[in-house]
Amino acid sequence: MNLEESVESLKGIGPKTAEILKKAGIKTVRDFFYNLPKDYENFSAPTTIAAMEPGKVVIKGRVTAAVSHRARFRKLTVTEGVIRDDTGFVKAVWFNQAYRVNQFKPDKEYYFTGSFELRNGRYCLMSPSAVEVDEIERSSGLAPIYVAHGKVKSTDFKRLINNSRDRFAEIPDFLPTVPAGKRRESLFKVHFPESTKSVTEAREYLAYEELFELILAAKLNRSENDKLESLQLPYHNDKINQFVKELPFTLTAAQKKSAWEIFQDMEKSTPMNRLLQGDVGSGKTMVAAMAAYEAVLGGAQVALLAPTAILATQHFEKLSKQLGIYGVKVALLTGATKQKDKLKTAIKAGEINFVIGTHALLTDDTEFKNLGLVIIDEQHRFGVEQRHKLLLKSPSELAPHLLAMTATPIPRSLQLTVFGDLDVSILNELPKGRQPITTKILAETSTRESLYPKIRETITAGQQVYWICKAIDDNPSSEATSVKSRTEKLKKVFPEYKIEFLHGRMKPAEKDVVMERFANGKIQILVSTTVVEVGVDVPNSTLMVIENAENYGLAQLHQLRGRVGRGSVASFCYLLTSGDNQPSRRLRELEKSSDGFYLAEVDLKLRGPGEIYGALQHGALDLRIATFGDTKLIKKARDDIEVFLKNPENMLKYKELMSDIKRYQQLTTLN
């Protein structure tokens, strides 16, 4: 079997289905088999209708009286039916699923899985999945659930996998460190589960595959980076000391240590490949300023790449003041920059020492005379190709040093595994004068209005407010209030204030205008989605309200909270929870701690690495299974890699593995 063949080569996948799958990233036969179930329905012990309690339930029954109708006020089709078993009946409701009317045959029993909840004063089974009892009872009682891709629903993918059942035997071996056939056997058991135990064992092997690739890629990265040559930038002790002495504040011990580590790296003949990670407000920009000044003193040009124009502008305004007095020529290059050609000519001639910009830095006509240091802020916001394109802008054969910065604290176990021996500097202290952020969990329905006096008090004092919502538009199947709806409601409560909204579907230029108005104090309350999560620095904002806080991850909540507390005024963050459930552990942890590194470790234990690393790499690395908390599996992978590397022939023999390694090397390296 050629795993790199188009997915269209598989049975039952025509051009239209293949196109849908390709849009979801399932382009090859390999992608198809590695599109693993996100979960399993266990139909071995369904609940009777009479015994149902609020929450997720699995029941078995027949459907009667299924009908569809259009909702009166919204463009929505509502399908309702009655499910019966020997103990009673329950109403089922589906939204925009009119096909359900013709799906159920009166003589057939089905398993239903859904949320049993109160709606409009009556308990209903909301949007339940349905599968024929005969189909389940022919199997182990475990049914895989796949992520829907457009018109290809979970049931459709299950059918397509079943069509290819006999092809699993053709899947070739992948790793040299496991028994022959282990890979095909594990993939088969994941898609066609025999028992919970067999699924666990199969997923453990596939997790081992991921860890093996990642750790091997990180090791090879370090080895290759050590072969490169870079411009050696000597340390200028007197001038750096003068710079530090004349700062209007005192550097933290962590800032001094990180700066010294960077200076030592830049003196070497191999390129620096360092990640500077610091909690929100820990002073990463100042460390970057010192690194840039040191590079310019050594005769090199510096480029700083920021993800948004507003952040690039903030960096320019701050750094041009700090470095300009020492003769450093700093320029801003964004899509809105006027006289770009003139500026780019000056950059190419070496007349500009330090260029701060957005994607405009990456265009082919942006050239440097002597690029010696590249700084990437919020490096996870950029793709691999974008980072490499900037690094290749050095006209000489010498590779520029690279300093990448992130405000997302990375758990130590994640550093060691994913980034291998990458050099990491950590800022784990806040500058003096920063006030702690008081965080409180509040029940949404009973206390939202009680926050209004606090908001009015905050704005009267000349400060600003963030109000975070989960959704952009209202959704009838969700209780979450949208950005647009909340904006209108707040305008009625606070007609005297300027209130605007911000969300990810707005055009970049529109977002920049709103953020600039907020930064300039022209907006008192900004209602936003998580688009403000990273990189927005408005010291005057001192209060944040996060609705439906239980629907966010811990790391994301911490990043959002970091948008306040950036000045010298005490700040507040209110986490509003919906429903009657007790606050989750992640909310309680956030309430008691503002230490991002501690919270990152908690997050790793609660959620696993997928979402955490996904946040770091902007979704580029898809960790389906591996858990970096599994130290035994990590140790096994590390030990096996040592053996693997002792035999150079392995690099040639396992071609699929080495092809993967090259991809992972790009994702796990910073240089």
Descriptors for this entry?
671 residues; seven-stranded parallel β-sheet; 20% strand; six-stranded parallel β-sheet; 38% helix; Rossmann fold; alpha/beta; OB fold (Dihydrolipoamide Acetyltransferase, E2P)
Write up this protein:
With 671 residues, this protein is α/β, with parallel strands linked by helices. Among the domains are: 40-145, Nucleic acid-binding proteins (OB fold (Dihydrolipoamide Acetyltransferase, E2P)), CATH 2.40.50.140; 437-593, P-loop containing nucleotide triphosphate hydrolases (Rossmann fold, 3-Layer(aba) Sandwich). It is built from 25 helices and 20 strands. A 7-stranded parallel β-sheet has the order 10-11-9-12-13-8-14, sandwiched between helices. Strands 15-20-19-16-18-17 form a 6-stranded parallel β-sheet, sandwiched between helices. A 5-stranded mixed β-barrel has the order 2-3-4-6-5. A hairpin with a 2-residue loop joins strand 5 (110-119) and strand 6. Helix 6 crosses helix 7 and helix 21 crosses helix 22. The longest helix is centred in the N-terminal third of the chain and has 30 residues, at 196-225.
